[in-house]
Design a protein that fits this description.
It is found in: Membrane. Pfam families: TMEM219. This protein has 7 helices and 9 strands. By secondary structure, the protein is an alpha+beta fold. The chain folds into 2 domains: 90 residues; 193 residues, no CATH class. The chain has a 7-stranded mixed β-sheet. It has a two-stranded antiparallel ribbon with strand order 3-9. The two termini are 15 Å apart.
Length: 300
C-alpha cells in the first residue's frame, strides 16, 4: 500500500530542489502579472505606443524649458538671443532665424503666405506662463526661436528651428459646444508655432485660436534656457503644462480587446504549468519517511 504525504513532499521539494522552486515562483509571478495587465487593458484606455509624438508630449517638452531675457529687449532691439544649441542649428541649416522683427498683422492657421515647407499654427492649449502681474490682455506678447534638439526632438527635426509666439495673458476665446467650453475652463494660452511641417505633431490638433499682433502691442524677445540654468538670466518666464486627455492617441477598442485576451490566455497557460509543478512536488517527490518505509520492504 502506497502512502502519500503531500505536506512533507512539498517541504522536501522546498529544501532539496531550490531551482524547481525558483522556476515555479517565476511562472506564478508572470501569470499574475499578465493577468493583471490583461484586466487593466480591458478596463482602461491605453496610449498607442506606435505614436512617438503627440501634442501632449510636444507641449510637455516646451514646458520643461524657461523663456529667459538676458537684457531688456523689446521691438526696438535688433538682435535675438540664441543659445549654443540654436546657433548650431542655424550653422547647419545655413539659414536665418524664423523670427521677423517687422510688424505682423495677423497669425492664424492660414499658411498661404508661407513656404510650402513651413507651417504656422495658432492653437489654444493648457500651457501657462509665470508672467509679471499687471500685463493687460492682448497688449503684450513675447517670441522665441528654439532648436528642435532643445525640445528633445530626434533625427531631422532636431536640426530644425521653431518660432514660438505667445500673447500674455491670452485673450478670452469664444467656445462652441459644451465639450469645447469645458476644455477652456482650465487656464489656456494661445500659442503660435511656426516650423517645418514635419516638426509639428501629425496627430489630433488642439482647438485653433486667432491672435492679431499690431504695432500697439509690446513684444519681448526671449531665449530658451533649461530650467537648471535659468537662474543665470535677468528675467525668466517659467512654463507649466496640464496635459489634455483629448489629445492623447489611444489604441482602438478592437486592439484593446485583442491584447487583453492574449495576455489572459497566456496567464492561464502559465497557471496550468504552475499547477503541474505543484502536482509533481506533491506526488513524485519522496521524503525521508517514505525512504525509510521502503527499506524494510526491500530487505524482506
Amino acid at each position: 500500500m502506497v502512502t502519500c504525504y503531500p505536506v512533507e513532499n512539498v517541504k522536501s521539494c522546498l529544501v532539496n530542489r531550490p531551482p524547481l522552486v525558483v522556476f515555479f515562483v517565476c511562472l506564478l509571478s508572470l501569470a499574475i502579472t499578465f493577468f493583471c495587465f490583461g484586466v487593466y487593458i480591458r478596463s482602461y484606455s491605453v496610449k498607442d505606443p506606435d505614436v512617438t509624438q503627440d501634442w501632449n508630449s510636444f507641449l510637455q517638452s516646451i514646458s520643461e524649458v524657461d523663456f529667459c531675457a538676458y537684457e531688456n529687449e523689446t521691438a526696438s532691439d535688433s538682435n535675438v538671443h540664441l543659445d549654443d544649441s540654436a546657433k548650431g542649428c542655424l550653422n547647419k541649416l545655413g539659414s536665418s532665424p524664423l523670427i521677423d522683427h517687422g510688424p505682423i498683422e495677423s497669425l492664424t492657421v492660414n499658411t498661404s503666405k508661407l513656404s510650402p515647407k513651413l507651417l504656422s499654427m495658432s492653437v489654444l492649449v493648457h500651457l501657462t506662463f509665470d508672467l509679471p502681474k499687471g500685463l493687460k490682455s492682448n497688449k503684450t506678447y513675447f517670441r522665441s526661436t528654439v532648436c528642435g534638439r532643445q525640445l528633445g526632438l530626434k533625427n531631422l527635426a532636431a536640426q530644425e528651428l521653431i518660432n514660438i509666439t505667445v500673447v500674455a495673458p491670452s485673450p478670452e476665446q469664444p467656445c462652441v459646444g459644451q465639450e469645447e467650453c469645458t476644455q477652456l475652463l482650465a487656464p489656456s494660452t494661445c500659442i503660435t508655432l511656426t516650423a517645418s511641417a514635419h516638426v509639428l505633431p501629425q496627430t489630433k490638433n488642439p482647438p485653433f485660436c486667432s491672435v492679431n499682433l499690431n504695432d500697439q502691442m509690446i513684444p519681448y524677445y526671449t531665449a530658451v534656457s533649461p530650467k537648471q540654468n535659468s537662474q543665470e538670466c535677468v528675467r525668466c518666464y517659467k512654463t507649466n503644462y496640464n496635459p489634455d486627455p483629448h489629445l492623447t492617441i489611444e489604441i482602438s477598442q478592437v486592439e484593446q480587446f485583442l491584447c487583453s485576451r492574449r495576455l489572459i490566455n497566456t496567464s492561464c497557460i502559465l497557471l496550468i504549468l504552475s499547477g503541474v509543478i505543484c502536482c509533481f512536488a506533491i506526488a513524485c517527490v519522496h521524503t525521508d519517511r517514505q525512504a525509510r518505509t521502503k527499506m524494510p520492504l526491500m530487505n524482506l
